[in-house]
Amino acid sequence: MRIWGVAQEGDYDRDDSDEGQGRKMLTVASYNVLAEFEYPQKEDRYPLLVNNILDDKADADALVLQEVTDGFLSFLLSDERVSDRYPYCSHGPPDQPGMGPLPNFLNMVVLSKVAFDWESVSFQRKHKGALVARFRHVGKWQGDEFKPVVLAVVHLSHGLTDGAVASRKGDIKRLIGYLEENYGGCPWVLAGDWNIATSKEAIQEALEKKNVSDLTVEQWKGLDTIFKDAGLVDAWEVTAEDKDGGATWDPPVNGVAVTLSGGNIWPQRYDRILVRGEDFLDVKEFNMFGQEKGHVGDAVEESFASDHWGIRAVLSIGGFGDDEKEEMEQEQEPENPLVVPAHLEKAPKALSGAGGIKACLSELNVTPGEEEAAQRREAFELLKTLLLDATTKTPAAARLQSFVVVVPVGSYALGVWTTSSDIDVCCIGPFSSNTLFSVASSSLRKAATQGVRNLRRVKANTGTMLELEVQGVRMDLQYCPAASVAQQWPNVLRLPAKDPVWSLAPQTLNKLKAIRDIDYLRRSLPDIESFRLAHRFIKTWARSRGVYSACFKGLPRSSSPSSSF
């Protein structure tokens, strides 16, 4: 089971912010999961809610949920299929030690495939507000300034009364004002449960019962004007052919909504996704999900998971819409007759579902288990401790007062190793190679009782290397003489290539390049877990087809995640 942790500032670091320019689509989904108000809370609907969230119709880059409770979020994030699809979440599971409870009984939560940070915006009513997330690496450049895509999540007060309508109007104005002040010029996506009545019959009924005044009805009609004045378009309206439909809360169809309707049986389009594209985002598709029934607990009759349908909008990015794509394809040069064309095919059902690839790799014993991962961590830490102890006791170390760094490289450092991989280790320090390997060999021989075997010392293209076996794990140890690099570790990795610290011999730079490449990849990849999964899958496929190479994606072998590409 995944252990969720709090993101640190370094998790967002990268050298540039060009991910949005590489993306062609951004998909946003919203789902009100309907909280349980009884205590103790029942979990009967939770499996059906999770199935809806994992449905292909709900698959999104960012999924926003409303009415999330502590119990449901803990249940949701404990499902590895969910954590595999969405490695980033605005809140951690409350049942995990050190996380703590959610701020309210009813909460808004963002799950995402892309790293983001977020802030809250308070509204007039207590416990009401908006969650504003920004994707630091999905956005556009405006001159020298990067404008990130901003996602605002709302769950406005319900009710068709004078006070409720006035409150919603004030909340909407406050949110738009906040976005204008803090994120003017950025592409916006506003999603969630707006609780804005769209049924004329419901409005007329409220008038006849004197629940609302004529003035309130005029205010209600003016809400869409507020959106239009702010440059926001409704994703459903852009794509819908039937402008009278689109209800996301539909008591005539959804029996769960009937139970909670309080006599209001008119279908309403409460849930919306609004977009201000800023010439960067353009609405292309819209669909609903969560419309399949299933068994809830021991109930004989099937039921829906929530009183709301989920909604999803597909947005094209930066002029990569269908028309532009067709024009680009028409302008492409004729195919090279010497190149065999690739024809895309839909993945088998066993692999296309959430978690399917991970399950397949587990069956093939490609994905390491927790026990093996722990064994390798312990073996690496033992080797690191032995090397550091040995080098700090040398006269040269006392004289130079220098640092020694021991780091993994290759597949282990990037987290794409398999059960058949060894661990590549690089030691950086102030000594000559002969001194280091002489001291290291002596120390390692003395550690034989701890499960350390010094297999042999070999001359490789990259220099001298020790082949070791530490507690049953095979390792290759290389050394890089670079005192200035070790002294400034790890901040040195962020220094540009022109910095004097990199004025080193070509063979030394080649070894350090492996480490710098891994560091750059780890900071640049927006979804490291998906990358690792894809890498293992492609590697497994390539080996099964007899595809081998010494390099992967142009990286030198010593820095490549695998030598089988």
Residue runs with pLDDT of under 50 for 5 or more positions: 14-21, 319-325, 397-401, 553-565
Task: Supply the CATH superfamily name of the largest domain.
Answer: Endonuclease/exonuclease/phosphatase
Give the number of domains: 2
Give the strand order of the largest sheet, numbering strands 1, 2, ... along the chain: 3-4-2-1-12-11
Q: What's the overall geometry?
A: elongated
CATH class of the largest domain: Alpha Beta
How far apart are the first and last residues' alpha carbons, in Å?
Answer: 30 Å
How many individual helices? Answer: 20
- Percent strand: 15-25%
Region (Disordered): 1-20
Biased composition (Acidic residues): 10-19
Domain Polymerase nucleotidyl transferase: 405-440
GO cellular component, one term: nucleus
Which key terms come to mind for this protein?
565 residues, Beta Polymerase, domain 2, six-stranded mixed sheet, 34% helix, disordered C terminus, NT_sf, Podospora anserina S mat+ genomic DNA chromosome 3, supercontig 2
Tell me what the structure shows.
The protein is an alpha+beta fold and 565 residues long. The chain has two domains: 20-331, Deoxyribonuclease I, Chain A (4-Layer Sandwich); 370-544, Beta Polymerase, domain 2, CATH 3.30.460.10. Helix content is 34%, strand content 22%. It contains 20 helices and 17 strands. The chain has helices at residues 19-22, 46-54, 70-77, 80-85, 162-183, 200-208, 214-221, 223-229, 235-239, 255-259, 322-331, 349-352, 356-363, 370-392, 395-400, 410-414, 433-446, 483-487, 506-524, 528-544; strands at 25-32, 62-68, 88-89, 107-112, 117-122, 129-142, 145-155, 188-193, 233-234, 271-276, 281-289, 310-317, 405-409, 423-429, 452-460, 463-470, 473-481. The strands form three sheets. A six-stranded mixed β-sheet has the order 3-4-2-1-12-11. It has a six-stranded mixed β-sheet with strand order 5-6-7-8-10-9. Helix 14 packs across helix 17. The longest helix has 23 residues, at 370-392. It is elongated, with a radius of gyration of 28 Å. 36% of the residues are buried.
